[in-house]
User: Fold this.
Amino acid sequence: MDDFLLRALAGGAGAALVAGPLGCFVVWRRLAYFGETMAHAGLLGIALSFALDTDVGLGVVAAALVAGAVIVVLERLPGFASDTLLGILANTALALGVIVVSLFETTRIDVASFLFGDVFAVSVRDLYWVGGGGALCLGILVAQWRSMLVMTIDSDMAAVEGVAVSRLRPLLVFLIAVLIAIAMKIVGLLMIVSLLIIPAAAARRLATSPEAMAIAAALLGVVAVASGMGGAIAWDLPGGPAIVVAAGAIFAGAALLGPLVRDLMQRCGGA
Amino acid sequence: MSVLALNDADLIRVDGVSVRAGGTLLIDQVDLAIRRGEILTVVGPNGGGKTTLVKAILGLLPLAAGQVIRRADLRVGYVPQRFGPDPVLPLTVGRFLALTAMADRERCTNVLARVGVKARTDHQLATLSGGELRRVLLARALLRDPDLLVLDEPVAGVDVAGQPELYDIIAALAHERNLGVLMVSHDMHLVMAASTRVLCLNRHVCCAGLPNAVTRHPEYIALFGSAWTEGLAVYSHHHDHRHDADGNVVSENHPKDERAAAPFSDHRHG
Assistant:
């Protein structure tokens, strides 16, 4: 296999392994639009990192975190549903990002590769982000799993039981920001949420425990990356979108066959 | 230094606690204390601040004034008023219980049986009925080996026949395990039987004391009407007042009802 293919597969699989369990929390806590808004703001971070000549990943993490903080402040505005506010912020941030990027010489930034992904151009530097950032995210998720789960079930109950709810919420936002930096090269800023929620939603149809759902989401994400990349090579399709379509197909399959598969797994487990 | 102020017998003491939301005073200078083996029930009208008081005591809301003094290492078991995890989170009853403590399966089953849940531990939480869910929540609170149980509407969603049974279980538990219980309720008769003390809250503490004394208190009668004072067995509703479309008591020429018609007006203490 060519080096670029190996890098693409390693980067995609690594991103999917982190996105699966993290995506479960996004699905459980209804943060899909929240994550999408953070991802759209990432383009501003890319422009910023070019302006300051720093690492693109750092710029994206910073911009996503700022967007997350702005959302938290905006949601205190009375009288607006949160999807309205998130829609406003996501689109404004994206438009601002495109404008700021357009101020640079066009040769320096390939906007499309950041917006739609460029999985077959994953570099060694990108793999450092996937490896380092991914390990950090998974480590935090494993260490804080019980606390985050109790908070997700009921945050007041968690607080009474001594869970540091006020620290866990920003931690979750931080994890999403890092994942955006990891996954933008794979599926692009516009479609990162699909890597978070589609495998997790598909896994819900197969799982009866939170842990099983997280593991299934990670594995289904890897399958989506591999099959999407395979399809992209076979039919000469753009990589990121092919991965997202593959994930969508996996969800459709799980939605239709989920109970059947669950029965089968239970029978095999019981035997 | 505030710990020193806690009486030996008290698990928790609330001193002049007020909570504000925006410009509105939700509860105003509430005092109370809870001891082991005692069931203190907070009753009061909707919007009277019962849940606010509970959340303030649990440290879930910032206090505008006053303080909550807890015994050091106080372990609290909490049953929130609203509880309904999204069905998108796959969670069995057993796993939900195990998340709270290092409870083994046998202990979970025993506690579930104690609170009268017939559902098996491998049932999904989302498939339980409202009543079963309340009992599972009580079981989970008990698994923490609490000193203090805080129960916000513990029988909400429990069928009518199950309600007295559940109050009996709570009273028996408080006695057996020597727990302090702080309970919030809006239904009067059943609560009166189960409580050792009652506190009537309508933003401020209207009255507090033994159940029988509270139900004879003029402010209590003004809030709930005389029908509530006569107990479940002889529930006879005296129509000495009328209700408007919202269920509020409409004042006639009755001094008692004038106060009832404006439950949020400032009460003057004679």
